[in-house]
Amino acid sequence: MKLEFNRKYTTIAIYAFLVLAAVVLFLGLVLNIEFFTDLLGTVGGLLTPFIYGFGLAYILNPVLKFIENKLMVPIFKEHINERLRRGISIFLTFVSFTAFLTVFIVIVIPQLIASISGLVASIPQYIETLDILANKLVLMIPWESLDTQAIQRVLEQYVGQLMQSAYEVLRQCLPWLVRFTARIASGMLTIIIGVIISIYMLFDKEKFYAGAKKIWYAILPNEKADFVIELANDANRIFGGFINGKLLDSLIIGIICFFGMSLLNMPNVMLVSVIVGITNVIPYFGPFIGAIPSFFIILIEDPIKSLWFIVFIIILQQFDGNILGPKILGDSTGLSALWVIFSITLFGGLYGFVGMFLGVPTFAVIFMLFKRFIDSRLGKKDMPLSIGDYCAPEFPIPKASPKRMGESRKRMRAEQRSRLKGLAHLAKPKEEPTKEEEKKSK
C-alpha cells in the first residue's frame, strides 16, 4: 500500500506535536519548579563572570572610543596597525579605570571609615542623653497606680528572650564568618575573570557584533533580522546614553555636594557626599532616598546644620534636575515623568536598587516597541499618527489625508534608514592586515 504525502495533515500533525510538547514541558516545569529554579541559579552562577565582563566592557567602551579616536589616531595615524592601537587603547583605558579606583580607595574610603567611626564613637554620648531623658520620663510616671509585679514579669520574659537571641547570634557567628570569607575569595576570583573577559570583548567588539548579526540573518528572514538589529541599535542608544550619562551626572553631583558641604562646615562631609552621589543614579526618588539618612546623620551631630543641609540639598537637586541633568542626559529615554516613576516603582519592587536604576531604560525600550507597533497598526488603517489628532472632540476620528499619511510614512522610513545606517559601520568587521601590509606599515 502506497502512502500519499498530504501537506495539510502533515502541518496539522506538526502543530499538534509542538502543542503537546509545550504542554508536557509546562507540566514538567510546574511539577518540578524547585529543580528548575536550582538549575537556573546554577547556570546564573556559572555565567556571572561573563555578566560582570559584559557590564564592565559596556561601561568602559565610551572611554575606549575616546582614547582610540581622539588620542591614538591623531598621534600615531597610520604608523601602527589597528590591533596594536586597540591594545594600547585598552591598556590606557584600564589604567585610567584603575587610577580612578585607587583615588577612591586611598582618599574616599579612609574618610568614610573616619566618619563612620566618629558616629560609632559618639553613640555612648547619645545613649547617655537618652538615658537622662528616660529617667526624667520615669519620674513623671505614677508608679503607685501601676502593677509593678506584672511589669517585672514582662521585663524578665523579654530580657530572657533577648539573651537567648544573643546566644544564637554568637553561636552562628563563626560559621557565618567562614562563609563570608569564602564568598569574598570567590567574588574576587569572579571579578578577575570578569575583567579578563571584558578585555577580550573590547578587543574584538566589532567581530562579536558582526557575528551576532550574521547569526540573526541566518536564522531569520531579512526583514525580521533588520528589525532585530534596529531594536538592538535603539536599545544600545537608550541604555548607553542613560547609564553613562547618569553615572557622570551622579559623580558631578557628589563632588559638588562635597565642596558645598565643606564650605558650609558641615559634619560627615565625605559620608554624606557618597550617599548623595550613589543614590542620585535613581531618577526622581534618588535625591529623597539619599537626603533622608544624610539629614539624620547631620542631625545627630548638629541639629541647626541639618536644617541648612535640607536647604542646600534642595538647591543642589534643582540645579541637577533643571540644568545639569538635561545637559548631560538630554531626552535619552523619551519617557514622561509619569512613566519614569512607574518604571522605577515596578522594577524597584521586583529587583531592588538595580531595578530602580536599570528599570527606566528597560521600560523605555518596551515603550518604544509598543509605540512603533501602534504607529504601524494606525498606518495600515490610514489613521493619523500624532496624538494631538486624538485630542479633538470629533467622533469618529477622521482619517489622515493622503498627503499627510505619505509624509508620515516617508518620515518613518527615513528614521528606519537612518537607524540602519548607524549600524552599518559596526556591521562590517575589520579585516586583519596581511603580513605584507604589516611590513609596509612598519
UniProtKB/TrEMBL annotation:
InterPro entries: AI-2E-like (IPR002549). Keywords: Cell membrane, Membrane, Transmembrane, Transmembrane helix, Transport. Signal peptide: none annotated. One of its GO terms (biological process) is transmembrane transport. Residues 398-442 are annotated as: Disordered. The chain crosses the membrane at residues 12-33, 39-67, 88-109, 184-203, 247-264, 270-300, 307-325, 337-370. Its main location: membrane. It comes from the Bacteria. Residues 404-418, 428-442 have a biased composition (Basic and acidic residues). It is a multi-pass membrane protein. GO terms for cellular component: plasma membrane. PANTHER family: PERMEASE PERM-RELATED, TRANSMEMBRANE PROTEIN. Belongs to the autoinducer-2 exporter (AI-2E) (TC 2.A.86) family. This is AI-2E family transporter. It comes from Youxingia wuxianensis.
